[in-house]
Amino acid sequence: MFAVLLLGLALGSSLALPIGENSPKGAIEKPKKIIVDAKLLKRPDHLEALPLERDGDINRNFVHEVLLGQDNNDLSSATTDQDKPEELTTLIKKMFLSADKDGDGKLSRKELMAQIVTNVLKHLDEGEVEAKKLFPAVDENQDGKISWEEYRLHYMIAKKIVDADHVREHMEHLQNLDKNTRLMIQDEEEAFNDADKNSDGLDEREWIGFRHPEHSEAMLSSMTDEIIKAFDKNDDGVLTKSEFAQLPPGEVDNASMEKEYVVERQEEFEQIDTDHDGKATREEILHFVNPRNDRHAASEVQEIMSIADDNRDDHLTLEELLAKKDLLDQTGFVRPVARLHEDL
């Protein structure tokens, strides 16, 4: 399993923002055009450097990001299937040279773990930089706080509910949205309010936590509660292995895929259940989703070694890693893309 975590997004709002709210009485202000790139304002479906998604699903990019230090939110349109092997080879070589601190041509467990930890911290830093750059663009009145109304405008566009040129006019008609869209908006508003601790709008630190919950203890705690809510069938506040490994609703045509899913979930549960009592407590889940938990790096070192260390000398050569590059490519990751757009 090659995977990275980074959180779920929904969008928009259920509150109406009056047009010309700050205009002289009776005047209707001409709507300002929203200029922030909508794609950048979407909160990621998973948390960077975390092994579980917000709904408890396994993040399938975890090993890829912590090993190669790359983000795969998008793929370059110029990339073709023919480009993939060569590009992945380049990424692995780059990682290897960075990790081989003593220059002996092979990676020890210590070197591999240090590289993984470095990549995780890099992801955390990149998320903070991205959030800080977006903050002044979303804070339209420049009062140092992002209100739900300000945020909602941009996310109505990001979700393609309305277009950028007419978003303000359409805010008065949100009641006409379909039920699923309204529910999605309500979920996003709840997440926004969770981050807004004193209910006065998000300051920069709260905004960072909202955008990237891996930076916020409160948001990681909220994520933990959502995972428990999704799987805790008997409402006892803890998860058993069978609860965590339950199949999602709907029928599965491929029985082998169904079995593989259950096995993968069970293995993930074993990592969460640190005291091996058959129950994953809230504290264990919270500890597991924390990206600064060294257990993630240690676990990935063990998995990578078991896959690529062919001669079992407890070291990895570049040749051994390249021989297993197909496993690193199973997420479909091809080339890194810039997280930040130059126009912000």
Number of domain units:
1
Which residues form runs of ≥5 with pLDDT under 50?
1-35, 45-50, 71-83, 330-344
- What's the order of the H and E elements? HHEHHHHHHEHHEHHEHH
Strand residue content: under 5%
Measure the end-to-end span. 35 Å
Output the structural class: mainly alpha
The number of E-state strands comes to 4
Proportion of residues in helical segments: 40-55%
Strand order of the largest sheet: 1-4
The global form is globular
**Main beta sheet strand tally, sense and closure:** 2 strands, antiparallel
What is the average of the pLDDT values? Answer: 73
- Alpha carbon gyration radius: 22 Å
Helix tally equals: 14
Signal peptide: 1-16
Domain EF-hand: 87-122, 126-161, 219-254, 260-295
Protein name: 45 kDa calcium-binding protein
GO molecular function, one term: calcium ion binding
Write the layout of secondary structure elements.
Layout: H1 62-68, H2 84-99, E1 106-108, H3 109-138, H4 148-158, H5 167-170, H6 179-195, H7 204-211, H8 217-231, E2 239-240, H9 241-244, H10 255-272, E3 279-280, H11 282-289, H12 294-308, E4 315-317, H13 318-323, H14 325-328
Antiparallel strand pairs: 1-4, 2-3
Helix pairs in contact: 1-3, 3-7, 3-12, 6-7, 8-11
